[in-house]
Amino acid sequence: MPDVDGFDEFYRGSRQRLLGFVYVLTGDRVEAQDAVQEAYIRAWQRWSTVSQYDEPEAWVRVVASRIAVSRWRSLRSRARAYLRHGATETVPGPGTDTVEVVAALRRLPEEQRVAIALYYLVGMPVAEVARETDAPVGTVKARLSRGRAALAGLLAVSDLEEATDA
User: Which residues have C-beta within 8 Å of that of residue 125, sequence separation ≥ 6?
Assistant: First the structure.
């Protein structure tokens, strides 16, 4: 069992110093907070060992700075790749049909929506959808049938409203 009180005391006594240190390294308060938080998580996971070090704060400081540098290198690599390969083509936004279908799907009960998404969008067979949702095959078939019927009604109402607005 970890020494909760000892870790809490260590955390309270060192967090501001470590955050200030990593902030100076990164120049970004949010990145510094993320790196320090991750370092403290790792220290907590190994607290029985880390607490025995002469300077546990030094261990956390090294871990936090390595995390920050690793993130910085990752961002730098992505920026270089972006410059090397150029901007990606712009992906057009969803069409009105897609927006209407998604809006109609949101109005369905969750079980029907999940079954429809797995069957039609992911392309799973009914038996796999049943395993994934932990439901009998017959239940999945019923959900698909009811979901399709509900969607047809919702989309027909939407089409009817558009026709009367025009």
Answer: 119
Residue 118, SS3? helix
pLDDT per residue over 50-74, tens digit each? 999 999 999 999 999 999 988 888 8
Contact 106, 113 (CB under 8 A): yes
Q: Where are the alpha helices (DSSP H) in 86-136?
A: 96-106, 110-116, 126-133
pLDDT of residue 125: 94
Residues 59 and 67: their CA atoms lie apart, in Å, by 12
List for the chain the helix, strand, coil content (%; round to 5): 80, 0, 20
Asked whether 61 and 21 are in contact (CB, 8 A), the reply is: yes
**Owner of token pair 């799973």:** 124
Nearest one of 22, 24, 28, 125 to 66, comparing CA atoms: 22
Q: Under a CB-based contact definition with an 8 Å cutoff, are residues 108 and 116 in contact?
A: yes
Are 115 and 128 contacting, i.e. CB atoms less than 8 angstroms apart? no
0.85 surpassed by pTM: no
Q: Domains in the chain, please, with CATH?
A: 4-85 (1.10.1740), 96-165 (1.10.10.10)
